[in-house]
Amino acid sequence: MIKHKEQRVSVLVDVANMYHSAKNLFGAKVNFAEVLVAAVAGRRLVRAIAYAIKSSSQEEEGFFEALAKQGFEVHTKELQVFAGQMEAGARLVRDFAGTTFVLMHAGMLEDRSPDGWTRWRAGMRALAAAPNVHVKLSGLGTFARACSVDLWSPVIRETVDLFGPARCMFGSNFPIEKLWTSYAEVVRVTTECLAGLSAGVRRAVLHDTAARVYRLDP
Question: Which pTM value belongs to this model?
Answer without folding.
Answer: 0.67
